[in-house]
Design a protein that fits this description.
Number of helices of chain A: 9
Strand content of chain B: under 5%
Shape of chain B: globular
Largest sheet of chain B: none
Helix content of chain A: 10-25%
Number of domains of chain B: 1
Helix content of chain B: 55-70%
CATH topology of the largest domain in chain A: Rossmann fold
Structural class of chain B: mainly alpha
Largest interface: A-B, 50 and 36 residues
Order of helices and strands of chain A: EHEEHEEHHHEHEHEEHEEEEEEEEEH
Oligomer: heterodimer
CATH class of the largest domain in chain A: Alpha Beta
Strand order of the largest sheet of chain A: 5-6-7-3-8-9
CATH superfamily of the largest domain in chain A: P-loop containing nucleotide triphosphate hydrolases
Radius of gyration of chain B: 21 Å
Number of strands of chain A: 18
Strand content of chain A: 25-35%
Number of helices of chain B: 12
Radius of gyration of chain A: 29 Å
CATH architecture of the largest domain in chain A: 3-Layer(aba) Sandwich
């Protein structure tokens, strides 16, 4: 099934679970339940109802999933909760067996399904490095060789002979991740490690994963962090209810996931809706996120400009209107709000349909999800604004960084906080600090003096 | 990456009976060693008396047995001083009962590992049994002291001692594998275990000698309890008394049958452990 360049091959893979406590041979239940069930089934059989009559309901956590991954690829697995992502990873790392289909993996599979697996609270950091390393599949000699690297990476050297139960949760996670990060499998399976730890730690995790992928090893990466997926993965697979829904370039699959599963959309249409936001003066008809070419776009390359198009009908007397937008990112932070200051809007408008587009320049927003609220208002006396039509969270879009350069990120790989990430112009000069011809070394020492 | 062709792992639905895969078990011997090391290291952490507990338990039980069965009930002890007789029976019994209890609970207490990492599941109960052996070695020192006190030097039969220990451990592992696998599905096992161990204690020649059974034929039937052979033999090898004779062979047969069936049963349900535990 695997060609020589493939690392993972999956063919019609499926995993079935039986539901509920009433679960017979493969389920969980007390002995009494099993006895009662067996008795009930026998009674059914005696009555002639057949053995299958009381069969418990089954669910397919994964069904009919097929794909291959080339060696050295980094593939994101995305989908909402219960889509089957973790089940897929568990099968590939051999924790559970599939119910049908098959899979093949070339080389050692290392899983980061949960960092710190097998840590014992009573043991010291040193002991736990050995224990956890062995559990993750390292040889004792290998652990001994990497021991110092692991300790340095974790940053808990001062506490290495303290039982880990005395560690802060941050230290604990850092040590655990340090061990896992020094595992060198050909295939690395990662499940949401980024959900834990502080920003600095997440940065370290992402950086480590990039190192691993640069070394030519294969990574399967499950995450709800869409910016991380688009940045780290060339390709993504979207699962929904256990089935493959999309498989392709990461940005496109992420866009599909966000528009389909999150219920937010790049377009909101009230064309024939009498309940459209507005009043007697005007009424909102449509709001869209558009790309450079004017096409509706749910995801936008961070380097390109983004348009928020507001279409509305002026129905009442010719008041002057001002369109405005407000952006909030997926962390709930306000990014900015803006309105059109063009004096043309100070003029009364004729009845009819208008479309106003706000263009947000490329390299201004940060990566991640952005929700857009729109409003149409009228200036009243004293510089106040009277709002006639408001649509909160009317549309949403995703800003992605395909990792091709040309952004404010430069070569930096890890999480970038703050709502905006402008690409600034930087200048570099070499000013003379002293008018006289003082050697550079003398300037430096002068600067160090307390006075 | 090296140019050597990497091994390809095939993942397929379970087909019922799994092969034993001893080779894989050998490959994971270091992990087993680490589990043993962890269990030993953790066992007496944050206790004031530490490993002394491994000495106190058999000593205290020996004292109680000596008073109740030796002094009050006058149970015959094959010509051996009763305290020595009792301790020589208690040590293999405690090895067995702690190995059995530890292995029966081992899978459930490693549930966090089973659901997160792959390794041959047999490693878990095996390591649990091996870890209990250390306590046994410590408590053996008490027995040595008591033997010195009674001037009871072991005879040539002492060379058979490892065989009887192996018999006790085989039995513990065999039964432990059954219960470990059952415990994953039915936590009822946790309630059955203490009762079973208690009943089994009185069914085994710990406080009394198998030589109390008059006919050789009945003794052979008594030997169907594998711990009868193990304890009677252990005591004979160290402190003397009548040779276990006909008891041993049924004990060995039953112990081997328990181990083989335990491994088969365990392997049969191994695949569902992570889903059910």
């Amino acid at each position: 099934m695997l060609t020589s360049s493939d690392a993972i091959g999956v063919e019609r893979l499926g995993k079935q679970y039986r539901l509920g406590a009433a679960a017979g041979a493969f389920g969980y239940g007390s002995l009494r339940e099993t006895i009662v069930q067996t008795a009930a089934a026998s009674w059914d059989a005696v009555r002639g109802a057949g053995w299958r009559a009381r069969e418990t309901p089954n669910v397919w956590a994964l069904r009919d999933v097929s794909f291959t991954v080339a060696a050295g690829d980094v593939v994101g697995i995305i989908g909402s909760n219960g889509a089957g992502k973790s089940t897929l990873l568990k099968i590939l790392s051999r924790i559970t067996r599939p119910s049908e289909g098959r899979a093949e993996c070339r080389g050692r599979v290392g899983s980061l399904l949960e960092v710190g697996t097998g840590f014992h609270p009573e043991l010291t950091g040193r002991d736990n490095i050995y224990l956890n390393g062995a559990i993750l599949g390292m040889r004792r000699a290998e652990i001994r060789r990497k021991f110092d690297d692991i300790v340095d990476f974790s940053g808990v050297r001062a506490f290495i002979d303290t039982p880990v139960k005395r560690y802060s949760s941050g230290m604990y996670v850092r040590l655990a991740f340090a061990v896992a990060a020094h595992l060198e499998p050909e295939i690395l399976v990662v499940d949401e490690v980024l959900a834990v730890g502080d920003a600095a730690f997440q940065k370290q995790c992402l950086g480590k994963m990039q190192d691993v992928s640069r070394e030519g090893r294969t990574i399967l990466f499950v995450s709800h962090n869409m910016p991380a997926i688009t940045r780290l993965c060339r390709r993504a697979i979207l699962l929904s209810r256990g089935r493959t829904v999309a498989d392709g370039p990461a940005d496109r699959v992420v866009a599909q996931y966000l528009s389909a599963e999150l219920g937010t959309n790049a377009i909101r249409d009230w064309t024939d809706d009498p309940a459209a936001p507005g009043n007697g003066w005007l009424r909102l008809r449509r709001v869209r996120v558009v790309d450079d070419a004017g096409e509706t776009a749910a995801t936008v390359d961070v380097r390109r400009r983004i348009g928020i198009e507001i279409t509305f009908d002026v129905e009442g007397c010719g008041e002057p209107f001002v369109p405005g937008i407000a952006l909030v990112n997926d962390q709930g932070s306000a990014v900015f709000s803006a309105m059109d200051t063009n004096p043309i809007w100070r003029q009364p408008r004729e009845r009819g349909r208008y479309a106003s587009t706000a263009w947000i320049p490329g390299n201004l927003l940060n990566e991640g999800g952005i929700s857009v609220s729109v409003a149409l208002g009228t200036f009243s006396s004293g510089g106040r604004m009277e709002r006639h039509a408001v649509a909160n969270d009317a549309v949403a879009f995703q800003v992605i960084d395909p990792g091709e350069g040309g952004t404010a990120r430069g070569d930096y790989a890890a999480t970038w906080t703050a709502p905006v990430r402008p690409l600034l112009q930087w200048t570099l000069d070499r000013p003379r600090l002293d008018a006289g011809a003082v050697p550079t070394e003398a300037v430096a020492s002068k600067l160090r003096e307390p006075n | 990456m090296s140019d050597a062709p990497l091994p390809v792992t095939r993942i397929e639905p379970p087909r019922g009976w799994n092969p034993l895969a001893l080779g894989e078990l050998v490959e994971y011997r270091e992990l087993a060693a680490f589990f043993v090391w962890r269990d030993i290291k953790v066992r007496y952490k944050q206790t004031a008396l530490g490993v002394t507990w491994a000495l106190l338990q058999p000593i205290a039980t020996m004292v109680v047995f000596s008073v109740v069965f030796g002094r009050l009930a006058h149970v015959p002890s094959d010509g051996v001083p009763y305290p020595l007789f009792a301790l020589a029976g208690l040590l293999p019994w405690q090895l067995f009962s702690s190995a059995l209890t530890a292995s029966a609970g081992s899978l459930v207490s490693s549930a966090g590992l089973l659901t997160k990492v792959y390794f041959p599941r047999l490693v878990v109960p095996l390591a649990a049994v091996m870890a209990t052996f250390v306590d046994f070695l410590v408590s053996l020192a008490v027995l040595a002291g008591l033997m010195a006190y009674y001037h009871a030097a072991p005879g040539a039969a002492v060379v058979t001692l490892p065989l009887f220990l192996a018999l006790a451990l085989t039995t513990a592992l065999g039964v432990g594998l059954w219960f470990a696998a059952l415990n994953v599905r039915y936590r009822d096992v946790q309630y059955v275990m203490p009762f079973l161990v208690q009943v089994w204690l009185f069914a085994s020649p710990v406080a009394y000698s198998a030589s109390m059974i008059p006919s050789a034929r009945w003794r052979a039937i008594y030997g169907l309890n594998p711990m009868a052979g193990a304890i009677q033999g252990f005591r004979w090898a160290l402190v003397g008394g009548p040779a276990p004779g006909a008891i041993v062979w049924p004990s060995v047969a039953v112990a081997v049958a328990l181990l083989v069936s335990g491994v088969v049963f365990f392997k049969r349900f191994e695949d569902s452990f992570a889903d059910v535990v």
